Amino acid sequence: MNAVDHSTTDLNSSTDTILEIRNASVTFDMDRGQSRVLDNVNMDIEREEILGVVGESGSGKSMFASALLDAVVDPGVLTGEITYYPERGQPIDLLDLSPKELKKVRWEEISMVFQGAMSSWNPTLSIKGHFEETLDAHNANFSEGMDRARELLADLYMDPERVLNSYPHELSGGMKQRALIALSMVLEPQVLVMDEPTAALDLLMQRSILKLLREVQEKYEVAMVFITHDLPLVAELAERIAVMYAFEFVEVSTIDDIIRNAAHPYTRALLNATPNLDVHVDEMRPIEGSSPDPVHTPEGCSYHPRCPLADDECVSEDPGYHAVTAGHDVACFHWEQSREAIPYTLPFQDDSTEANQ
Amino acid sequence: MSSTSDEPVLTLENVEVHFEQSSGVFDLFSKSDVVKAVDGVSLEIPENQVIALVGESGCGKTTLGKTAIGLQRPTGGSVKYRGQDIWDAKDKRGDVKIPYSEIRKSLQIIHQDPGSSLNPNSQVLSTLSAPLKHWQKDLSRQDRRARIFGMLETVGMTPPEDYASRYPHQLSGGEKQRVALIRALLMSPDIILADEAISALDVSLRIEMMDLFLELQEYFNTSFLSISHDLSNANYLATKADGLIGIMYLGKLVEIGPAEQIINDPQHPYTKALRWATPNLNPDSHGGDLPMRKIDIPDPTNPPSGCRFHTRCPEARAVCRETEPQGFEIGAEHSAKCYRLAGEAHEYWSSPELTDDDFGTTDDTEEQAAGD
After folding, report:
1. Between chains, do B204 and A205 touch, taking CB under 8 Å as contact?
2. For B234, how many CA atoms within 13 A lie in the half-sphere containing its CB?
3. Could you give the C-alpha distances from A143 to A46, A135, A306, B43, in angstroms and in order?
C-alpha cells in the first residue's frame, strides 16, 4: 500500500500503542528479480491486546513476525520503522539498535515463539537448562526467574518439576510447545509474537493451548500477536484480526466485524473457503485462482486477478485504505459492493446495512 | 453406495498392532514396553465408500490405516481383501485365491507430506511413469504418456506437457498432492488411504482438494480411507460422499457412524471433546470449558484400565475404570463404546462418579511416569 493516508488508516482504536510499524518492507534479491515479501506494511499493536494475523502460505505473515523483532534472516533486507513504546522511558526504534541493544529488547521486551516447537529445543539440554541459559544470557535474577518458570509451567497445566527435569524428547509435542511458551514468557516480555505456534499439533491440543494462552495473556498482561493460516482457530482467541494477502494487510478489524461483515472480497472468499462445521458442506466454496508470485506481484490491487469486482481502476491503481467504520479498514475500492458480490455462506452475516456505515 | 457387490473390499477383524519398545528411538523407556497402537479394531470398507478416521496424535489412526492397506503386519486379528487374507497371500500360506501383487496394487496410499513423497530428482513424468512401467509392461511409451497427460488434465494441471517436465520443487503444495493422487490412481486401486493428505494444505486450498478427491473417487469407483485430526475436514469429505466417520482413541475405535450423525449428534464423550476442539466461526459461541479432565493424552505404553478415556472423561464413573465398554448400537451403522449408551439399567448409573482426587494430584502423572 503505497498511497497510505494516515487520516484514514488510523489502525488504532485507542492510543495506547506498544508497537508501531510504519512502511515496513522486506526484500530479497533473487536471480529472477527482487522479491518483495513484505510490502510497506503499517500496523499498530496495542498494549495487552491479542492481534491475530491471518494469511495463506507465502502471504508474508512470517516475515511480518520476524520484522517485529528485527529478525529477518539474511539476505533479506528490512526497511521502514518499527517503534517499541516501553511502559516508561523513550520510544525505541528497533531498526536503529546495536546488536547488543537489540539482544536486550528481544526476549525481555518482545519475545517470540517460532513455528515448529520441536526444533526450537536443544536435544542435549534439559528443559531446566534452557530456562537457566535464558536467564543467564539476560543477567536476570536466577531464583526469581525459576520461580516464574515454575508458575508459568503450572499455568500451562504441567507439573513444573517433572517438566524442568525432562529432556525435550521426553515430552509430547503439546507439552514441548507449552514449555516453549513458558520459556518465551520467563523474562516477562511486554509483547509475545507467535508464528503458527500450534500448527504441528492436533486440534484438541491446539484448542487447549489457545484457551491457556488467553488465561496467560490476562494474568501476565502481555500483548500477543498470533500468526496463523487458520482463521477459525484464531477467531476464538484474538480481539482484532489483520488479514494478509500478497505481502500486505488488506483488511483490519475486530473479530466480530471480520466474521459478520468482512468488507474485502478476499476476506469474504477466505471465510467461504474455510472448512467448518457451521455451514453445510454443499455451500462451501474454494477461492478461484492462485496466490501471486512475490517477484511479480500484480500492479494495482494485488487481488484483482482473482476478484469478481475488479475493474480497470483495480488493475492500474493501488486502492489504499478505506474506513468502513472506526477501526475497520479495508484496502479495496469496491468494498461497498463486496457483500452483494460475494455472499456469505456463513450464517453469521450482519444483515443491517446501517452497520456498514 | 455399494453398486457392484455386497462383499466389502476390505474386512478388518479384531485387528491388533502391538509394537515392542526395546532400544533406539524409545530407549528412554528402560523396560521393554508394548505399545498397543491398534487394539482390537473391526472395520469393513465396502466399494465406493469414504471413511474418515479422526483422532489425536498417537491414537493409532495411521497404524490402523497402514494395516488396512497391507503395509503394516498386524500382530493379531486379520485383514482380508475380498475375502483373501492379505498376509496369507503375502506368505503364500494356504489356498491363495488372490495373489499378493494384485492386492498390493489395489490398495494405494497418499502420504501426509506431498513434498517428501516425491523424488526431488525426478520429473513428474518419470515419477508417474514408474508405476505404469512396473505393472503394465506392455504399454507403449506413447500410451503411457497419453494416460499420464490425461490424468494431469483431469486434476486440473494444464498444460500437461509443461507440468510433466517439472521437478517437485517447481510445484506448489497442492500440485504435489495432485501428483501423488495421480500416482495412486494410475493403479486403478479399490482403496486409497489418504493419510492427513489435506491438513498439510492451506485452509483456503482444502475444499478444492477435497472436491477433487470426491470427484475422482466417484469417477474411478474408488473407496477412500482418510485419516485426519481435523473433524471439519473429515466432515466435509465424509458428509459429501455419504460416508462414515470413525473416532479413534488410544488404539480403539470408540465411535463410528454416518458423518452427519457424528457431527450433529456425537455420543461418545471423546467425540464430544473433538467436536468442541473443532474451531468454530460463530462469534456468539465462545466454546465453553474444556470438556475433559486433562489436556494430555496418557502414555500409550501404559494405557488406563477399563475404558481408556476414563482418565480424561468428565462423565467417568468407577465402573469405567474397571471394565472396558463394548460397542453399543445407536442407529444404523452408528455405534459407540460408552456405558452411558447401555440403557438405564446398567450398573454405570449406580456406580460412583470419579472425582479429580481419583487421578492423583498432578495433571500429567501417566504421561510423565514413563519418563522417569
Report:
1. no
2. 32
3. 31, 10, 56, 55
Interface of A with B in 116-135 (CB under 8 A): none
d(CA A260, CA A11): 19
With respect to residue A249, please indicate whether it lies within any of the assigned structural domains: no
Chain A residue closest in CA terms to B59: A202
Asked whether this complex has an ipTM greater than 0.85, the answer is no
Give the integer Cα–Cα distance in Å for A209 and A181.
10
Task: Sketch the domain layout of chain B as residue ranges.
Answer: 10-121+167-369
CA atoms of A192 and B2, how far apart (whole Å) = 53
Residues A228 and A298 placed together within one structural domain of the fold: no
Q: How far apart are the first and last CA of chain B?
A: 51
Do B203 and A229 make contact, defined as CB atoms within 8 angstroms?
Answer: yes
Residue A343, domain extent: 262-356
Tens digits of per-residue pLDDT, A188-226? 999 999 998 887 788 888 888 998 999 999 999 999 999
* CATH 3.40.50.300 holds for B10-121+167-369: yes
Span between the terminal Cα atoms of chain A, in Å: 23
Angle at B366 between CA B361 and CA B372, to 5 degrees: 100
The three cell numbers of residue B318 are 468407577
Q: Which residues make beta-bridge pairs with A79? A: A25
Q: What is the pLDDT of residues B314-359, one digit of tens each?
A: 999 999 999 999 999 998 899 999 999 988 889 999 999 988 777 7
> In this structure, is residue A1 part of a structural domain?
no
Q: What is the pTM of this model?
A: 0.85
- Note whether residue A11 is domain-resident: no
